[in-house]
Amino acid sequence: MKYKFNPPGILKFMFSDFYWTTNNDKLLLTFDDGPIPDNTYQILNFLKSNNIKALFFCVGNNIRKYPEIAKSILDEGHTIGNHMYNHTNIRTVAKSETQKEIDQFNKITLKELNYKTEFFRPPHGRFNLATSGLMKQNKLKNVMWSLLSYDYKNDKNIVKFALENFLMKNSILVFHDNISSQPIIIDCLEFLVKEAEKKGFEFGDPAECLK
């Protein structure tokens, strides 16, 4: 059950060059898959009202569709990471295709946002033995997680169970900025903030959490 929410230690050991937890004992809040209309803005409003800075792993094609929403993420002081251009599962394509999508993502962020990303997260959390080399080649930091919220299942009870049982002071948390999570995302984030306060945990800025 634990490994459903927090990857096993052997995997973290084998890929110790990836980020699985923060380096400063603070919580790092991350969002995958955006930006999209409505949901991204409601997340941004919540973060602003709670003075939390987050790391948004955006899909390049969504940035192309909604550049103004992506700009809002940066204007609010948050960080954007590379989540591939088409949200492609790395395990299903050749290394050259993965590189192509990383490049496509970089081009669109430079064109639309004048922004260069430092962080990467593989779509679906799927990677392979070539991923470490690709990260070094592209000077990217691969950011995984220590708590997967499963908010995309649209079931608040699953998210609450994850937070109550597996939230640690150095957790990298994964939520989703997509249609699937939209109906419950704010309720889940409110629960997260309350749970963090109860346990005495603080939220950190992406740059300081991933030094």
Give structural notes.
This protein has 10 helices and 7 strands. It is globular and about 45 Å long. The strands form 2 sheets. The chain has a 5-stranded parallel β-sheet. Strands 4-5 form a two-stranded parallel sheet. It has a single domain, classed as Glycoside hydrolase/deacetylase (TIM Barrel, Alpha-Beta Barrel). The model has no long low-confidence stretch (mean pLDDT 97). It has helices at residues 2-5, 9-14, 39-49, 60-65, 67-75, 95-113, 131-138, 156-166, 185-199, 206-209, and strands at 28-32, 55-58, 79-82, 119-120, 141-142, 147-148, 172-176. The chain is of the alpha/beta class and 211 residues long. Helix 8 (156-166) runs parallel beside helix 9 (185-199). Helix 7 (131-138) links the parallel strand 4 (119-120) and strand 5 (141-142).
Kindly report how far apart the N and C termini lie: 30 Å
Residue ranges: pLDDT <50 for 5 or more in a row? Answer: none
Highest-level CATH class: Alpha Beta
User: Which descriptor suits the 3D outline?
Assistant: globular
Structural class comes to alpha/beta
Which strand-content bin applies to the residues?
5-15%
Provide the CATH superfamily: Glycoside hydrolase/deacetylase
Quick overview of this protein structure:
With 211 residues, the chain is α/β, with parallel strands linked by helices. The chain has helices at residues 2-5, 9-14, 39-49, 60-65, 67-75, 95-113, 131-138, 156-166, 185-199, 206-209; strands spanning 28-32, 55-58, 79-82, 119-120, 141-142, 147-148, 172-176.
